[in-house]
UniProtKB/TrEMBL annotation:
GO BP terms: protein folding; protein tetramerization; protein transport
Functional description taken from the UniProt entry: One of the proteins required for the normal export of preproteins out of the cell cytoplasm. It is a molecular chaperone that binds to a subset of precursor proteins, maintaining them in a translocation-competent state. It also specifically binds to its receptor SecA.
Keyword Lipoprotein in annotation: no
UniProt subcellular location: Cytoplasm
Subunit structure: Homotetramer, a dimer of dimers. One homotetramer interacts with 1 SecA dimer.
Source species, domain of life: Bacteria
Gene Ontology CC terms: cytoplasm
UniProt keyword DNA-binding present: no
NCBIfam families in the cross-refs: PRK05751.1-4 (NF004393), secB (TIGR00809)
Protein name: Protein-export protein SecB
The species this protein was found in: Halomonas icarae
Family: Belongs to the SecB family.
Length: 170
């Protein structure tokens, strides 16, 4: 009987080994591209700072190896003088990360790359933009948290309305 129980356990273990194990690990987080411009300095510093912030976010993901994905958040912040419309500064950042993901496929992988990974990366992007703007001589630009789950859901909804599948991976 004990042998039958052990064989049953071994049979289950063997069956589980056939399935890829679920793995999610951050391999590296890095700045892929960064830019800061203050085209109207030093004149912009000689007037009261009345900012109007324009923010653009985009995410992309690419499979770079077996179970290895690069996810990138592109953040563009353009701040103009609210009364004059002149650009105070333009800060652009591509914050990227390498993620080891195995055992997740299809829609679940798409969701992981389109929402979960950007949620991991965004705090790094916020800190980098804030630091960049501060080093440019401007008051800190504290970006509000972003709900990448909602952004992902909107992308999927738009794709469904257009009758296409919008995969996050490229």
């Amino acid at each position: 009987m004990a042998e039958e129980n052990n064989q049953g356990a071994d049979g289950q273990a063997a069956g589980q080994q056939d399935k890829p194990q679920l793995q999610f690990a951050v391999q590296r987080i890095y700045v892929k591209d960064i830019s800061f411009e203050a085209p109207n300095s030093p004149a912009v510093f000689q007037q009261p700072f009345k900012p109007k912030v324009g923010l653009n976010l985009d995410t992309t993901s690419t499979q770079v190896g077996d179970g290895l994905y690069e996810v990138t958040i592109k953040v563009t912040a353009q701040v103009t003088h609210s009364e004059e419309g002149t650009t105070s500064f333009l800060a652009e950042l591509e914050q990227a990360g390498l993620f080891r993901i195995t055992g997740i496929e299809g829609e679940q992988l798409d969701h992981t790359l389109g929402a979960f990974c950007p949620n991991v990366l965004f705090p790094y992007a916020r800190e980098c933009i804030d630091n960049l703007v501060n080093r440019g001589g401007f008051p800190p630009l504290m970006l509000s948290p972003v709900n990448f789950e909602a952004i992902y859901a909107r992308k999927k909804q738009r794709a469904a309305e257009q009758g296409q599948d919008a995969p996050a991976t490229q």
